[in-house]
Amino acid sequence: MQAVSRRIRGAIYTGAVIMVLAFLLCVWPAPFRQNRGGGRYDRDMRARINRLNEDPRTIPEFDNALARDPEDLDALFGRARAYYKKGDIDKAIADYDKYLEIIPDDTYAYNNRGLAYSKKGEYEKAIADYDKVLTQDPRDAYAYNNRGLAHFKQGETDRAIADYNKSIELDPSNATAYDNRGHAYSAKGDYEKASADYARAASRKIGIW
Fold this sequence. Notes:
The protein has 209 residues and is mostly helical.
C-alpha cells in the first residue's frame, strides 16, 4: 500500500512540474526569454527557473519546446542543467555550447559548463571557462571556488587555496568554499587550518554565523 502511495505521489509531482514548465515555456514565455540581441539573464529569475528545470524528468518538455523553437534559450539552458543532473554530461556540454553560441557573454552558462567539464575530468577546459567568467566579472565568488576545485583536482593545492581565499573574501558566507579550502589544507598536512575551515563551513551551513 505504501509503495502504491509513493508511486501516486511521484506521478503527481512529475505532472505538476511538467505543467508549471509548460506554463513558463509556452503560455507565459516573455518574462523569462533572453533578448537575442545580447545581455544577460537576471540571476534571481534564473535561480527560480533552475529550481524547476534541473529535474531530469523535465527533459521531454524541453525537447518539445526546442522542437518548436531551436533557439529557445530558457529550454536550452534548462535541458543542459537537466542533462547534467541526469549524468548525461556530454549532452549537457553540447547544450551549453549551443547556448553560448547565441549568448557568448553569459557568465552563468560558462560557470555551469565548467562544472560539466570538471565532472568529466577535463580540468583545463573547466579552468578556461572559469577564466572567462572572471575576465567579465572579477567578483564572481562562485567562479573562484569552482576554479579552485579544478586546480585542487589537478594537484595544484596552493593555487586552489588562493582561489578559495578569494572566493571567501568575496562571499564570507560561502560554506562550500570553506569546506573545499579545508580539504586543500588537509592535503598539505595543515590539519589545524583544515579543522578551523571545516568548523566554519559547518557553522555557516546551519546558520550560526
